[in-house]
Amino acid sequence: MYITCLDLEGVLVPEIWIAFAEASNIPELKRTTRDEPDYNKLMNWRLEILKQHNLGLKEIQDTIATIDPIPGAKEFLDELRSITQVIIISDTFTQFATPLMKKLGWPTIFCNSLEVAPDGEITGFKMRIENSKYTTVKALQSIGYETIASGDSYNDLGMIHASKAGFLFKSTDKIKADNPNLMAYETYDELLEAIKKAME
């Protein structure tokens, strides 16, 4: 029994924070987990910037409403879900992900949640579990599943290395160079073929 575990941002949809950085004209918010391996550090830094600019959840959700999946992502996901179970494991938050899940046909997603004040200020965030991608893959394996994993960032490496088969997808040159043992793909057709082969 296989479950394929996919990252969300950069793999199926564009990076939310990059889109928001462009919409809000705050270029430093373009920093993502491709640049900063420590997610808690990255998020606390982001929240500080939002506070400085008096921006809250509504402004980010307004940007998210304009984001569409990467071309081909929904078709890839539909085909993949016809041959295996799929879980999206993301460090994003339910308040960000829901509109994107609708556009992707409501796949299963495991993610985190934001702490939001009545005035819409994002005051904090609650991670579902420590090191969630790796921990979730190990938990799935503990109940009898073989996992296949794919992602693009530093925070995906744990689940990729822990899985029976793991692939980088649309990753950075640095991450690819640092992980020469991992196959790296750029198109959904290539990734789908690699996953099918891994399941044989």
Side-by-side strand order of the widest sheet: 4-3-2-1-5-6-7
Class per helix and strand makeup: alpha/beta
Mean pLDDT, rounded to whole units? 95
- Beta percentage is 15-25%
- Give the low-confidence spans: none
Structure write-up:
The longest helix has 14 residues, at 39-52. The protein contains 9 helices and 7 strands; from the N terminus they run E-H-H-H-H-E-H-E-E-H-E-H-E-H-E-H. The protein is α/β, with parallel strands linked by helices and 200 residues long. The protein folds into 2 domains: 2-14 and 69-198, HAD superfamily/HAD-like (Rossmann fold), CATH 3.40.50.1000; 17-64, thrh gene product, domain 2, CATH 3.90.1470. Strands 4-3-2-1-5-6-7 form a 7-stranded mixed sheet, with helices on both faces.
Characteristics:
thrh gene product, domain 2; seven-stranded mixed sheet; single chain; alpha/beta; globular; 200 residues; Rossmann fold
Blueprint (SSEs and pairs):
Blueprint: E1 2-6, H1 16-24, H2 39-52, H3 57-64, H4 73-83, E2 85-93, H5 94-103, E3 108-116, E4 122-126, H6 132-142, E5 146-151, H7 157-162, E6 165-169, H8 173-178, E7 183-185, H9 188-198
Parallel strand pairs: 1-2, 1-5, 2-3, 5-6, 6-7
Antiparallel strand pairs: 3-4
Helix pairs in contact: 1-3, 3-5, 4-9
